[in-house]
Write a structure and sequence with these properties.
Radius of gyration: 22 Å
Shape: elongated
Largest sheet: 5 strands, antiparallel
Structural class: alpha+beta
CATH architecture: Roll
Distance between the termini: 40 Å
Order of helices and strands: HHEEEEE
Strand content: 35-45%
Length: about 120
């Protein structure tokens, strides 16, 4: 029994050391809902036409695009119109679904607003 335990520990240590020697790295955690809220605020900072009431992550997808890791964060946002937009009066609340694509960099996730969001 002690021998089996020793062999398991040795095997785990060997696997860890091989990973370190080969330079294998793990994919960092994906961007968060808070990152998406920050992107929304940054991209709408000069518009002053809507107020973000809520933004909820609904899904996410990691994929390789041109040799880079890209994470698409899908969300549902609820916004309130602050001004007359078309035939919608100020105060109108609208819910819509959209997504933001983040690209992995050395320093974190690069958002569509060109800001880097560090890995949490």
């Amino acid at each position: 029994m002690k021998r089996l335990f020793f062999l398991l520990i040795l095997l785990a240590a060997f696997g860890f050391s091989i990973e370190q020697l080969t330079g294998c790295e793990r994919t960092p955690p994906p961007p968060t809902e808070q990152d998406a809220i920050a992107v929304w605020h940054y991209t709408h900072r000069n518009l002053h036409t809507e107020e973000l009431l809520s933004l909820t992550k609904t899904n996410g997808q990691m994929q390789q695009v041109g040799g880079s890791d890209v994470y698409t964060l899908y969300f549902e946002a609820k916004v309130k119109d602050l001004v007359q937009l078309g035939n919608r009066a100020p105060g109108t609340i609208e819910t819509y679904q959209s997504n933001f694509a983040f690209r992995r960099t050395e320093k974190g996730w690069l958002g569509p607003d060109n800001q880097v969001y560090p890995v949490h």
